[in-house]
Amino acid sequence: METIIGDGSSRQDIEKAGALIRAGGLVVFPTETVYGLGANALDAQAAAKIYAAKGRPSDNPLIVHLCDPKKADEVGYTSPLYEKLARAFMPGPLTVILPKRACVPDTVTGGLATVGVRVPSHPAAQAFLAACGLPVAAPSANLSTKPSPTRAGHAVRDLFGRVDMILDGGPCQIGLESTIVKLTGPDALTLLRPGAVTVEQLKEVCRQVTIDQAVLHKLGEGQRAEAPGMKYRHYAPEAPVIIVEGPHDAVVRYIQRHTAHQPCGVICFDEDRDKGYFSGSVFTLGSRRDAGAQARRLFECLREIDEQHSLEKVYAFMPDQKGLGLAVYNRLIKAAGFTMIQLGEES
Ligand code: TXA
Ligand code: MG
Q1: Cα-to-centroid distance, 273 and ligand 2 (Å)
Q2: DSSP secondary-structure letter at 228?
Q3: How far out from the chain centre does Cα 14 lie?
Q4: Which residues make Cβ contacts (< 8 Å) with residue 318, sequence separation at least 6?
């Protein structure tokens, strides 16, 4: 398939992308979180092409993207709590799971009775969705099992020749996928995936905020994930990632010991790199205190690790879990397949 590379700030390219979607095609577009791989959400065949292009299991539902929060009524059944969340966080990095309307095909929702809706704030995403004039189903624009793309170049590497067009909108401002919530009562919701709309922010709008177990823990045998995507091994580099937690000096010593005699990588913060603790393949996430920088860097960092095929293991420092840090932590523990080492003072 021929893939056109377009400019997300060109009116002409946006119009072309909209026409491709209306004709049943696939278009990669930028959002403030990560790049999305879009198709007409009301066309079962167009949506089915997304799964083929990504190599994605077809029971993993897609998020439906809209240019205006008011349009959610066209694909799902909204509620006063939805309206409150929309006023507080849309357009922006929040996906809300609603009971679905019959017009949304099963290929989009993986056969579920619910649909996820999201209104991205990125100007190119807004212009693209307006040009499409219909709801757009879009997962992240990576090959299944690769990290989500935070730059157009990542999507080009994964999907060139598999999609009709890739719109370049520069690096994504957030770098991790949207927060996903499921509404469970008039003033209650469950967090299915942490993102840039934080638990702390959600609590200001909704009385009861529950964190789904799959956010922080590995699901046990036979346990069902509320968001089907959370059950898959995601974002995992080829080299196994091991997160090391404990007193800072003990973590530094442990990683130094374990990286001395074999080709290993280290994921650390700027402060540790600056101290020169580690030699070899050091990947930095930004400052220890800057969760925004860590969020922007993490997926790119995981892609860089995969480009160095020689690494046997990668050791990572534990990020802080407050605010946006919870999303960084969630993606990192998934990249590590939940492998964590807990050190005491004496280590
Ligand atoms: O920021 C984002 O959300 C990006 C951009 C492109 O908007 N999209 C994205 O899509 O991350 P994707 O497909 O990579 O992740 C969607 C997640 C999956 O874990 C999926 O299982 C869950 O959302 N999901 C979608 N619809 C759902 C539903 N009806 N019920 C529960 N989970 C749902
Ligand atoms: Mg994804």
Answers
A1: 30
A2: G
A3: 23
A4: 243, 244, 245, 251, 329, 340
